[in-house]
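To the structural biology subgroup,

Please find below the input and predicted structure for Glycosyltransferase RgtA/B/C/D-like domain-containing protein, which we are adding to the shared reference set this quarter. The sequence is reproduced verbatim from the submission form. If anyone notices a discrepancy with their own records, reply to this email rather than editing the shared folder directly, so we keep one authoritative version.
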Amino acid sequence: MKKYFLLYLLATGVFLGHYAVSGHAVYGDGIDYWAYLHSWYFDQDSDFNNEYRHNYSPLYNNNFPDYESHEVVKTDITVTGKTNNFHPPGTAVILFPAYVVADFVSELSGTLRNGYSNIYQITTGLWAVGLAILGARICEAVAHRITGLRKEARSAAMVIFLASPLLYYGSYDVLNSHFASFLVSAIFWLVILSDRAHKWLYLGFIVGLAGLVRLQDLLLVIPAMAVTRKREWLGMGAIIAIIMSPLLWQWWQLYIKFYPETYLHNWIIGSGVWGSWFHFTNGLFWRTPILLVAISALPVALRLRSKVIKLMLLFFAAQVVIITIQGGWAAAAYGGRMYISTMSLFVVLLTILVRKLPKILLWGLVVLNFISVGSFVLFEKEVNSGKKRGLEEHTIRKIELTLGRLGVNWRFGQTIK
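Predicted structure (tokenized):
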């Protein structure tokens, strides 16, 4: 556990370093998940109007009374006249305990209790980092049970965390759905490997929660059905439906329909699987080649005659299909983020391979990923202005002004006035 604690300290350092420079951790899709937290806890309703009129910036996050825009930003108004929030609430459910703790600490310390300030974002962010590290620890347990290799499983779990998209979404940009998707899917495989009675009940709960985090992870129902009896499918399906029912109710309230999502609406093939794997910015294997290295262990893995490995591969194949069809992999983001729920498979594969690989190669790929993340953050990230500039606009502006005071005339790009 000491190594995971050190990993947590490293990830925390990245998160806090980013926060110190940028001044906030809630932006982009994170605003949608934060809207749930604030609405549930402070307003005790599901109306997101005031959450989407809040100005998510360091100044206004720590401002009282709250400044609100005259109209909603980032989203739109639905056919029912309600403020839209098209992301599912599962991530917010997982973040909610930390949000409550943050409010308790804020009340005790006499600091601003508005649900947006630094104490809320930092506390919730540190919780998310911890859960991402917990996901890596669970992946180690899964790989150990499948392969019988304890030390190798630990090394593989840590290397995958540091050399894959998990580094970015488990330390830098944590208030998003990806840490939660990774954690829940890791727990799923651990339950698959267990000898629990009524396993169908646990699997139904986990699959439902996975779908509540990211709809594409409902595909976990395929391996869940493969390890349960047919007579248990109805009960498992009922549990999944119960867990998913808040989202169905929300969809009906917002759109007067039970399925407004576009996973199967667009059928965007485009550059297809080759894009989601090898695109320069968003490609799973191009951006984080450690995963391509891990794939080379597949022939050995199949000889283990493990049913779970085959189910992991089936889940990965199903994800490839849905990601290729939906086309969301091409959105502005780092690496193959939509594949994060499949990282347990790569930990298992790397566990098999790790003894045969030179340590210098493994840690070289870790360093390469740090460089890759740094390049994305500083030069490639598409920010709110729609321009390709690093970090957030105000962060770059702050860095440029600081360098200017030191007599260094440096520009990352066209400066926003």
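Summary notes: DSSP finds 19 helices and no strands in the chain. The mean pLDDT is 89.

Regards,
Lab coordination
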